[in-house]
Amino acid sequence: MAKKPEYIVANGCLQEGSRLILQGEPFSPATPELAARLLAKGKLVEARGGGKPQEADGEGA
Known about the structure:
Blueprint: E1 7-9, E2 14-16, E3 19-21, E4 26-27, H1 32-40, E5 44-46
Antiparallel strand pairs: 1-4, 1-5, 2-3
């Protein structure tokens, strides 16, 4: 059984070997250190049930 993705690509895209992971797609980093680095740079967000990051809608409109 495949491991459930823990994160969603939030900004840009990532490359893992020859695989390209686009913004909005699920991603499971190989190590906790890699996850921490990508979270700190804003490339990933933690997955929450629905599987897609929430987009800012410009509050106050």
